[in-house]
């Protein structure tokens, strides 16, 4: 009962509200109930794996720069990349199916999740993962019809969610941004930027610019709000501190998206990349921030991997443009770091699967609460 | 770090292993009772209680008179509170603290009254100074848990040679602000062969000064530069004495270097820019100003370096001060200015390594300060944002300006990007003037001129990066101009402020705006732009000259150029009344948060709080 609830900081008062029936239902450890407990936070795993796949694909691509570092990377067997892509695909598929089951069986808690200030952002995660997978697909070229159809399939939900979430920020009475904003809100921005990049790769510049501007405008607002850290906005529990890494994921993604739109890694992209590099350095210098969350393995740890992959991607693009020793070393370090972190996370998951699996549904109690009100 | 340990903790202080055996406490308490009854004007022995190791720089403790177990509170020291009033209940001394040493903190020869071994002078002192009673203050010097006070009490006559020099006694009060609590000084004086002073008295086991949390600065200080003490607050250093010069030398003194070095750049630009060539300004002006600024920088840095060496704790407190921390960027920005304004006679091409060397400290400071904004505890931006934060942003733009003019490409863009992102955040926050923001001055103050600094330098930096004064630079320039105009028309409201050295730092934005205007007039050559550039130059020069006059006036006529730096001497623990106030405020917030029963409702409840 404690772990996931603690993770999402469900207030204690709620935990005493349910009646005995509900308590019994929650306490039962049947397979079915565990299956329905996979909340959207588990999509961090798929985000990370798909981000890794995209990174590997970019590294393997032949480039104009015949620098030694990229050549070394290209020595890696393409089988390794295919394996990774398949693993990512299967994981994403499995998670989506599990979430579908949850939607069907436990719709109330899905609704409660959607109303939660952290949970609602992770509803974007599956669509982002699909888009990343699409971009890294080894067999699908961007100029094919299939790619286009799939892009529409995955981008439309993002746009719909945008309208819902962003509209809430400035219109709805209860959830004003100054109170709701937390580092996971940047996932919404990343969703737009990933969609923009995928569209730009297809050649659809207008849609790309549209999604990019949506993402950037809200990123500006969010960036300022998060930095200001209003009094009531420390609503992120310490278990979720790894999501602070999203601070540098968003500008890296923006830099990649703009590079795709403008077909070159120009000054604007460089500035966004440097900003994310600075934020990365700033977070890495503060290990104390993450100490509490590192005490116990949880699905929140998977939040480390995706931002590192995106940063490494941006560094790759940067190194390609600025052909210098420093840039290449930077790219190598970041790429190795992201690969190592992802591998470590996979190892941890394999060893401590028990810690990772959900033992309870943190939102089921929220749903009771919403019923009572 | 938070003053939790300092605030009246009810937990008993664990007795130090070398402290008084309880027998002695008993004996001494007995004697206290005796004095209490006799109420002799001389000397009631003052018993100090040693707080636990964490408390440091306290110079007087107050034993609460209510009960023995009542919390020990620390009151800031007052030199004249040598009224050695005793706690009415002798049982208060049965606490398990070792009694501290009683040292005189006054500079009256303490030869008298030594048989009682107390800081003396109580009687004479009471006659001389106004006794200030605040609930039985106990002036104590240092807390020496490990001293052997029993010696003092039992053999008071054995230390007649402890007649200290006046100056030495005065120094002791500042020990907590010294590096390693004064041990460094002793080491140095030992090295120099000065006579050994009585070590056991001077050695304090726990004079580590208390860390002052951010909240304390807001509670204790007020004013646009957070340098005025609120009435309810007290200092830990004597208010009526002139403190050692190094303690009075604040970090905003680097503002002088900022102001003068930016003037050097201005006159260099005037001499070299094609649009002002008609003025025939001689490059000698730049040379003279540059040499003056080098000299000033050398002087100020060496003095401050001495302060770091000898009074490190004071420097640390300045670092914790929400406004002063921004001035730690000032020396590096000055170095950058000096590099930008270097006369052609001295050097034309600077080595690029110099840029990396100059930017490294700025980079490290930034990582720390911006990281604090994002995630560091109490120092959230919605609370601490103030116009002085511009100093931490401007460094980025100045660095990128220098780097681009040196021919570097990536580094300047890096710092420009970081500066721009954080400038956007700061700009929005300051414009919002959030209700939770306690540091934005309510009235106009010269510090507001710092608003002009960032856009004017950014526009020149961008022009150097792209090689052309394009639209982005123009946008930044017009923004700077607007802010300047907006402040200038309100010049009437900049009145009634006490002059401080920090004002020098506020002149460099004006100079920056003038330089940007000269650059702009070189692009857009028109009579109006030229007139504007001359006008702005004149304004900035006159302002600097006026400031120079004011500085000289305060330095040589009024002798108050370096007043006691009270901002760093606030006590780490709030006084009782402010404590209650803060506690009630915190309780209010906590209550509201606990009241809500659902996550959503919690946000509604929290909403109005923000408006408070």
TrEMBL record, chain A:
Transmembrane feature ranges: 76-101, 122-140, 146-167, 206-227, 239-259, 271-289, 301-319, 325-348
Keyword Chaperone included in the entry's annotation: no
Domain of life: Eukaryota
Keywords: Cell membrane, Ion transport, Membrane, Transmembrane, Transmembrane helix, Transport
GO terms for cellular component: endomembrane system; plasma membrane
Topology within the bilayer: Multi-pass membrane protein
One Pfam family per UniProt: SLAC1
Location within or outside the cell: Cell membrane; Endomembrane system
One of the GO BP terms on file: intracellular monoatomic ion homeostasis
UniProt subunit comment: Homotrimer.
Family (UniProt): Belongs to the SLAC1 S-type anion channel family.
Function: Slow, weak voltage-dependent S-type anion efflux channel involved in maintenance of anion homeostasis.
The protein, known as: S-type anion channel SLAH1
Organism per entry: Canna indica (Indian-shot)
UniProtKB/TrEMBL annotation, chain B:
CDD domains from the UniProt entry: TDT_SLAC1_like
GO molecular function: voltage-gated monoatomic anion channel activity
Record key words, sorted: Cell membrane, Ion transport, Membrane, Transmembrane, Transmembrane helix, Transport
Pfam families: SLAC1
Membrane topology summary: Multi-pass membrane protein
Main localisation: membrane
Compartment annotation: Cell membrane; Endomembrane system
Lineage top rank: taxon: Eukaryota
Any one of the GO CC terms: endomembrane system
Coiled coil: none
Membrane-crossing residue ranges in chain numbering: 245-267, 287-306, 327-347, 353-370, 391-408, 414-432, 444-463, 475-494, 501-522, 534-557
Biological process annotations from GO: intracellular monoatomic ion homeostasis
Recorded family membership: Belongs to the SLAC1 S-type anion channel family.
Protein name: S-type anion channel SLAH2-like isoform X1
